TrEMBL record:
Pfam families: HbpS-like (PF03928). This is Heme-binding protein. Residues 35-45 have a biased composition (Pro residues). SUPFAM superfamilies: GlcG-like. It comes from Erythrobacter dokdonensis DSW-74. Residues 22-48 are annotated as: Disordered. Coiled coil: none annotated. The lineage of its organism: Bacteria, Pseudomonadati, Pseudomonadota, Alphaproteobacteria, Sphingomonadales.
Length: 649
């Protein structure tokens, strides 16, 4: 892809048509607001989780958010593009102020040798939507994360700063390549499904995106771009005066995240996360701004928003949101939530494997149900890492797939972050794929640069038969091989074979992960801008289709921990993925939940110990480095003092 880049065609045809609209503003609190959230309602009898109250954004609220953000932009002499979404990613408005630039630029590679989506010119509306979705999707009733938070946790060192070289990569390294426009899970505005919706650019790490709250309940997100750069913050140790962030923060007035759950009240590996570098006293008095008196226009965005007025958001947890409480017909544990199709039907009911033609004994429906139930039970006992108050229960999404990557069930807790739905499925598929006998052959049959990663991996491991099913790979194992340093964080060491070298790496080009979906992103951006009349298929990667259908990686791969493959004896039969809390918690829920399911029903379980990827040793200089498989929290449970709960399993 070096030299003549095929996707630079987007730089020329990105002007978006506009139309007017208006609504009355709403009043919802003061400029600094966001105090302690009201206590959640008590769990229903027999349950351990509370269900978030049904709150949503009205059309007038959307107008208020836009008017406030625009008022701040005017006061700073800037012209912004502003997007508002609800919690499940429905785009409620995209607004361009007079003079707002129709495009923005993604930073190039550090060495100037751009690849994947580095250095692209993109539509400003797409960037604003991605920021709004990120603020909404990463947040919950127990944590409020912004796009600045996202920036901090996806870079090659955590925390990212010039003086932190030598530290491991961010805990959610790679999450930016989720919610992809090609995902077979994330819905499209045109397909009749309500949510969760896709993002035009995946998740954003560019400051200027925040969640929106009402009465302690996350109801959506706001995203802003005015500075022309869709980038990230490479130094978390200073405080930036970021134009996009100031404008977006003004939009949240009256819809602020509660102070007690903002990212700066949450730690990862002992480091406090960052929510914003701009504080409320640094923005102007915007409360009371009227959308009707705001100069600018609503702009349609192909595939996301018609431009026909301000829209009301759906209330999360209702059928209209596409995510609802399960019934006993859906799942046996009453605390579970499932994805719905808007008419009451479960999109991903528990079922047996579809791969009977490939396996002597696929996962049965009873086994699938046991795996999901046992993983859900581990989650409900586990102490959360990324939620406030302390000693909250973990809340995640759990996905199970067969060897073809087909979904055998998705369940989640009531208030798990939305991003984890797509990511848990990515993780399940990734663990299954890289553990299968088919991985190398299908990667070698893919277009573009993808086949080269197979040869790089085989050379790096000294194994000419790597990726043919001899070893079981958890996402933590594949993540080890996907970092720009190996071992992770050790400056001066070689890059992992599935990564870009550090001189070329940034979060817009991670390696195999981004190369697999480059064609999808190019086609989609062409569709959004009008350069192409055909959208990307609802099927990520150019890998061969399985049984005439989608690929095994139909929503892309993920490269941070939280999944394990599922085995019957020595035979791979699928994968389980977990996402929504700390990565060690995600690892434990998948690994220990699968183990307990095997103890309960027999026949299935984790990979045999002698084929797990932590048996692979890589020669690095004069020493040997072993891959990792899973890493469970030391004392993880709220109802037990048990320690080292995964030891010896």
């Amino acid at each position: 892809m070096r030299g003549g880049r095929t996707i630079c065609l987007f730089a020329g045809a990105l002007l978006l048509a506009s139309c007017g609209g208006g609504d009355s503003p709403s009043s919802n609190g003061g400029a600094t607001g966001g105090g302690p959230p009201p206590p959640p309602p008590p769990p229903p009898s027999g349950s351990v989780y509370s269900i978030p109250p049904a709150e949503s954004l009205g059309a007038a609220d959307v107008g208020t958010v836009i008017a406030q953000a625009a008022a701040e932009a005017r006061s700073r002499g800037a012209a912004a593009t502003i997007a508002v979404t609800d919690r499940v990613g429905n785009v409620l408005a995209v607004f361009a102020m007079p003079g707002a630039a129709p495009t923005a630029n993604i930073p190039g590679a550090p060495n100037g040798d751009n690849i994947d989506v580095q250095g692209l010119t993109i539509p400003s509306a797409g960037a604003a939507i991605a920021k709004a979705i990120t603020g909404a999707y990463l947040s919950s009733g127990g944590n409020a994360f912004s796009t600045r938070t996202a920036s901090m946790i996806v870079q090659e060192h955590f925390p990212p700063a010039p003086t932190t070289a030598g530290l491991e990569s961010g805990p959610l390294f790679g999450v930016q390549f989720s919610q992809l426009p090609c995902s077979d899970l994330s819905a499209r505005a045109s397909d009749g499904l309500i949510g969760p919706k896709r993002s035009p650019l995946g998740l954003a790490a560019d400051p200027g995106g925040f969640p929106l709250y009402r009465n302690g309940v996350v109801v959506g997100g706001v995203g802003v771009i005015a500075d022309g750069v869709y980038g990230l913050d490479t130094n978390v140790l200073d405080r930036d005066t970021d134009l996009d962030e100031a404008i977006a923060l003004a939009g949240t007035v009256g819809f602020e995240a509660p102070v007690a759950i903002r990212a700066d009240r949450i730690t990862a590996d002992g480091t406090s996360l960052r929510y914003t570098d701009i504080e409320y006293p640094q923005i102007g008095s915007v409360a009371g701004a009227s959308f009707a008196g705001t100069d600018g226009a609503l702009v349609p965005v192909t595939g996301y928003y018609s431009g026909a007025g301000l829209l009301a958001g759906s209330a999360y947890g209702t059928e209209a949101s596409g995510i609802r409480p399960s019934t006993l017909a859906d799942f046996s544990i009453r605390d579970a939530f499932v994805l719905s199709d808007g008419t009451g039907a479960n999109r991903f009911p528990v079922r047996g494997g579809t791969d009977g033609a490939d396996l002597s004994a696929p996962i049965t429906e009873a086994e699938a149900r046991a795996i999901l139930e046992e993983a859900f039970t581990i989650m409900s006992r586990a102490r959360a890492q990324i939620r406030q108050p302390l000693d909250s229960r973990a809340q995640v999404t759990i996905s199970l797939v067969d060897t073809r990557g087909r979904v055998l069930g998705i369940v989640r807790s009531p208030d798990a972050p939305i991003f984890g739905i797509d990511v848990s499925l990515q993780k399940a598929r990734t663990a299954n794929f890289f553990s299968g006998s088919f991985a190398a052959s299908e990667l070698l049959a893919a277009p573009g640069e993808v086949p080269q990663f197979v040869s790089r991996l085989r050379t790096f491991l000294g194994d000419p038969q790597a990726l043919t099913g001899a070893f079981a790979f958890a996402d933590r194992s594949g993540g080890n091989l996907s970092r720009p340093y190996f071992p992770d964080g050790e400056v001066g060491q070689p890059h992992g074979p599935l990564s870009r070298p550090i001189a070329q790496f940034n979060p817009f080009s991670t390696g195999l992960q981004s190369a697999l979906v480059l064609g999808n992103l190019a086609q989609h951006l062409g569709f959004v801008t009008g350069a192409s009349g055909t959208d990307t298929p609802r099927n990520c990667t150019g890998l061969p289709g399985v049984d005439g259908g989608n690929t095994r990686l139909a929503n892309g791969i993920q490269i941070f921990p939280g999944s394990v493959p599922v085995y019957r004896g020595g035979q791979l039969v699928g994968g389980i993925g977990v996402s929504g809390d700390g990565i060690d918690q995600d690892d434990m829920i998948s690994f220990l939940g699968l183990h307990n399911a095997g103890q309960r029903v027999g026949g299935i379980g984790n990979a045999p110990r002698d084929i797990r990827a932590d048996r692979i040793v890589v020669q690095v200089g004069s020493r040997q480095v072993r891959l990792r498989y899973v890493n469970c929290p030391f004392a993880p449970f709220l109802d037990s003092a048990a320690q080292n709960v995964c030891e010896g399993l």
